[in-house]
Structures are given as structure tokens and as C-alpha cells.
Amino acid sequence: MQNISLADIQKEVKTLQIAERFFDSVVMFALSEVGVFAALADGPKTFDRLQAEVGGNVESLRATLDAAVALNVLSRIDGRYCADEDLLDCLGRTESPAYVGEWIAFLHALAGPLFKLDEAIRDGSTPGALFAKMGGDDLPAKRRTQAMDAYARTRGIEIAERLDFAPTRRLLDLACGSGTYSLAIVARHPHVRATLLDLPDAIAVARPIVERHGMTDRVEFVAGDAMKYQASKPFDTVLVSNMLHMIGPAASRKLMKHCLELVEPGGRLIVQAQYLNDDRTSPRWATLLSLIQRVGTPDGRNHAIGETTEWMQQAGFMDIRHHRLSAWNVCSCLIGRKPA
Ligand SMILES: C[S@@+](CC[C@H](N)C(=O)[O-])C[C@H]1O[C@@H](n2cnc3c(N)ncnc32)[C@H](O)[C@@H]1O
Prior knowledge:
CATH architecture of the largest domain: 3-Layer(aba) Sandwich
Shape: globular
Mean pLDDT: 96
Order of helices and strands: HHHEHHEEHHHHHEHEHEEHEHHEE
Bound molecules: S-adenosylmethionine
Largest sheet: 7 strands, mixed
């Protein structure tokens, strides 16, 4: 029999550690979906108590809770399961400013499609439709806009404070998603009125969010295709936030040209994105966002700062500058001006 050396075993362990990383996500998604974090939000609980609250199959729940302890997602102290307070704020307490439950549910919907990334590589298939009406598994499309709200309200609304909106009167938020950025901008800058445009399924989600914030008098909605939108009057500021990665390079180039028509002379185009560096292998999250687009859209992928700047220049924008936001924010903005 062939001897297996310690070095070979170490190689295997190293490889399996990478292969098994997905169990962290599997356990977190399951606990989140069945309501374990919500159940633990008011304190540690015994298995029987937790089971009584979340229900379901006893053995599957027990196995998942025990694996969660082994993976350091939960702890068990004196026979009671508990979660770290930070995790509970993010996943168990909907009223917490750090709550990202809808974003985690979106990642869960994408997990199945992402496990078919090999198919996307082989034949360009899109198992995790991000656009409504693409067919197949459209749970990612259904969860997408609520997820954008969670992502933006807890991590992204910085642009409202960090960018200068003093000159802005009429803002067009092109591909607004949940409208969360515009809401933050109009809330902080009372002189701004915003037009929110997106495809009809996203506007149906954005409308009640804007109503809930009591901002309907400052905001108007347009349900339609950004590529075809004709405004009766150009805007002094157009925001295109986190959209270009969904449509890919060719359509992005076209959209930048279309934006030139939508911005008034001397006005600004702000293109916010989770930009790749020009090496395209960093930052980490920007490379992963590209994978989501490859399994969810026909043409999408994430873009680098350099290529996006070039498209804006080719469209006719000038003085294009890259504005970083805070160190923890994966988004940053390219801002260009239409010649006066
Ligand atoms: C990732 S979301 C970003 C939403 C929002 N701007 C944000 O930053 O949170 C991208 C948005 O682009 C919208 N979108 C994609 N293609 C579009 C098109 N051709 N016309 C209008 N909206 C489009 C999607 O419906 C989606 O809401």
C-alpha cells in the first residue's frame, strides 16, 4: 500500500479548507431564513425553546445549530444557544440601523445560481436571473430591490453627506432601484427635487419606501427603460448608481452618451459603482460582484475605474474625477461635467 506522507495530508487539509468555506454561508442563510437570529435577539435560548419558536424538523434544526457553534456563527453556553450582539443587530433586529437581513436573503437567493458558475463559464447561461422576465430561477430578481435598500441604507448613503449637492436643484436618479440614495439626498438637502427612474418592478418597490419616508412631494417616479428615457428638460445632476455592472460595457458606453443629453450644460454626471481597480483582481468584493452579474445577467460584469472614465470622456463629459468615500465603503464615484 502506498504511504501517505504528512505533507500530502497537509495539502489535502489546505484544499478542503477552501472547498468547505461555503458551509459558513449555508448555515448563516438557513438560520436567517428560519428566524433563529430573530428568536435569539432577546437573549440566549435552550434548544427546546428555540425549536418551539422556529418550528420545523427537530434533527435538522439541531444539526444546523450545532454546526453553527462549530463554525463560530453561534455559541452554546450552559446549554443555551446565543449569538454575538453585532450579528443580532445585523440579522435579528429589523429596527437596528445595522440590519441587513434583506441583503443576506438576496445573497441566499444567489447561492444556488452561483454554484452553477461553471455552467456560466461553459455556455454563458444565467441561472440566477437578476432582471424580471428572464425566466429560470427569478428569486434573485424578486429580492433584488429590497436588498438594494438594505445595502444602501446601512452602508451607502454617504454620498448624500460627502458630495456637494449645493448646486443641485433637479436630480435624476437613473436606475434608482429602491430610491434609497435619492431619499437620503433630498432629506439632507431640502432644495433638491428628484426624479426616480427604473424598470417597473423596481419602481413598484421604491414607491412605498418613498411614501413611508413622507417624501412623495419631493420625488417623482418614472417606470421605464433608462436607455430610452427622454426628459422634457435636462437635469443639473444625474446620478447613475450601481447600474452599469448590470448592463455591461457596450450598453454602459451607450448609456453614458445618453446621459450627456439628460444633463444640462455645466451640469454633473455622478457614476457611483463598486469599482474594480484597473488590475481587475482587486478589491475583493468588486471581483465577486462581477460573478453575480455573470450568473444573473446576459451582458453584465463589474467595471474598472479606468474604462468607466474612458466611456464618460468619450460621451463628452470633462473634468472627470474619482471620489472615494469612507474606507469601509465599497462604493466610490466618478464625477464628470458637461461642458457649459
Ligand atoms: C444594482 S441596482 C442599483 C439600484 C440603485 N441605483 C442603488 O444604487 O442602490 C441596479 C438597478 O438598475 C436597474 N436597471 C437595469 N437596467 C435598467 C434599464 N435599462 N432601465 C432602467 N433601470 C435599469 C435595475 O432595475 C436595478 O434597480
